[in-house]
Amino acid sequence: MTSRPPTDATTQSPKAGGVWTFWAPRREDHLVAGILDTSETDIWLVPLLANTEWAADADIALDPDALGYEALAPISSTGWVLLEQAAEPVGMLSEQQLRSLTDAREAFETDRRVPHPAGPAILSDKDPRKDAHHAREDDLRAYFDPWALLHSQNELGPLVKGRREHFGIDLETWADELDVDARTWRAFERGEADPDATIPAKALARALASIDVLVSLRVLELAGESVRKHHQAPEPGAAKARRRRGIRRALRHDPEAAEQAAARYMSALAKELGL
Amino acid sequence: MMTEEQYAKVRAAVLAGEDPFPELMAECRRSAKLLIRTRGLPAHYSLVGVWSEEAIEEAFADWTAVRLVERGQLKAMLQRSPVLNVFRKECETSVRQHLIDRLKRSQSANLYQRVRRLFQQGENFIPVGSGTGTLWRLSDGPTEPANQEEHALLGVAWALGDFEVIRYDPQAKKLSPLLAAGELERFCRGMLAAGAMTAGTIVRAIELRFAIETQHTPAPLDDHAAERGETDPQLTVPNEDLATATLAELTERQRKVLRGKSAEVPVRDLATQLGCSTGTISHELRQIEVILARLGADAPDVLNKVLDELLKEEA
């Protein structure tokens, strides 16, 4: 499992307008970026690049008063990262700068002309900036991939399945190592079972550690969602009568009980993950 | 030498707004010197045509003044570098880029004369007016003046596509110009197809398109060394050094692309292997061509050494 590298502890939390550095697994260098918005688990950012060479009409130039050096904000490359990827604050955008970046993004998304672009439009397929921008996107992808991975599913089981298969891990062997029944694990991976009822948080944490998933609040959110979706509570009352008759107890989905179970499981998993 | 702990402390202080510490500048000097001395940096990257102690000091001082201080790049490098090892790599890249930019400026020193000569002697160039304000147009091109705004000029210039960079020739007694005559003519004709322009406007378009910085006038190259009977240092540079310089300048992805190209892997397959787009592969192939040409490393014997080294790395 990938965890946040040690950085100077900071009490500041990322918020819109902040300029932070961001880390990514397998990248030695940090990305400097301006924060456009945040959610409970994620950050929406625009990279602020010191290399201004390939500027075009979807890029905004930032004067040195923002960062101490001239920078380029590629509006087409705004993206989401996980909250845990924020490494340290290094500056603050002025209200005007933040507005110009969000306005530019809005214009870009609605196919309007980005106001005050840093460079001219790409007018021809021969323009080498076209390929240079592809290379830039590929470079930045490393920072956006952890978020994309954890948002590719809306519950944890199928995501775990995808990662396990990516690493070529055999399900039966893995379940055995984790001391979980293989059928139970398969049902969890298929999004058919409640992990709270079938998979100890410790086993799930061990599993996540071996499939290179970034430790994050989003993982907890996905685990919680798995519980919420598949939690089954016994029907209230008549339990004694059922037992007397030898009938398996009836189960039903109770949103309130599911929410409680999700909170409990997320808390246990958070402890195991060190969050 | 700086320790990781010292670096962390100094980095935090400078990012918090303090002046760069002497230890940090010493680290920058060390990184710059190491690059020049051990990475096979060719002598034509030096303004005086040789990497003497004085030339190294001059390059370091110029890099510090222009990049680290004036453009605030020290802060940018520190922000991107959580650990010392990354900072050293950032320094190396920055010094190299600075030397390359100076080289481009030197190569573009006589652009104005070349453009004017081309207009006066070439076919189908029609002058309107006189003196430095003379507008030039193509006989079959538009007669109206082109939009002089920099974005408009740059847009036209980029749309002309790639231009072949002149290969550095170690046999030459001075640096090659930025663009060969044929490529300069293609550039000028492409620009004039957008409207009439002065030679000065064309030169400005070249400066913008090829990112030639004009605010600093470089010291003249020592063109007279050969006349004084001194040996051109490039003539004595062994191919091993050029191979070292090339390998040091290529990024990790460019190395993989070069290996793939030499193994004749189709672009699409190479993109799949490297997990990137075909556009990225095309971009990297162009960047590799530029690096090889600038270093004079595209000569078959040098290129073979580079490829041998890459294959060894792979093994």
Which fold name corresponds to the CATH topology of the largest domain in chain A?
SH3 type barrels
Order of helices and strands of chain B: HHHHHHEEHHHHHHHH
Strand tally of chain B: 2
In order across it, which strands form the biggest sheet of chain B? 1-2
Supply the helix-strand structural class of chain A. Answer: alpha+beta
Query: What oligomeric state best describes the polypeptide chains here?
Result: heterodimer
Please tell me how large the radius of gyration of chain A is. Answer: 23 Å
Q: Report the major sheet of chain A.
A: 5 strands, antiparallel
What is the 3D shape of chain B?
A: globular
- What general outline of chain A do the C-alpha atoms trace? elongated
- Per CATH, the class of the largest domain in chain A reads Mainly Beta
Tell me the strand order in the biggest sheet of chain A: 6-3-2-1-7
* Largest interface, chains and sizes: A-B, 39 and 38 residues
Q: How many individual helices of chain B? A: 14
- The percent of residues in helical segments of chain B reads 55-70%
Secondary structure elements and pairings:
The complex is a heterodimer of chains A (275) and B (315).
Chain A (H helix, E strand, L loop, with lengths): L17 E5 L8 E8 L3 E6 L11 E4 L1 H4 L3 E4 L4 E4 L3 E7 L2 H15 L19 H22 L5 H11 L4 H8 L3 H8 L5 H4 L2 H9 L7 H14 L2 E2 L4 H7 L5 E2 L2 H19 L2
Antiparallel strand pairs in A: 1-2, 1-7, 2-3, 3-6, 4-5, 8-9
Chain B lengths: L3 H12 L6 H17 L14 H18 L2 H8 L3 H24 L3 H11 L3 E4 L6 E4 L11 H10 L21 H12 L6 H11 L29 H11 L2 H11 L4 H8 L3 H18 L4 H15 L1
Antiparallel strand pairs in B: 1-2
Helix pairs in contact in B: 2-5, 3-5, 6-9, 7-9, 10-14, 11-13, 12-13
Supply the key terms.
heterodimer; A: 275 residues; alpha+beta; SH3 type barrels; five-stranded antiparallel beta sheet; B: 315 residues; mainly alpha; 3 domains; 3% strand
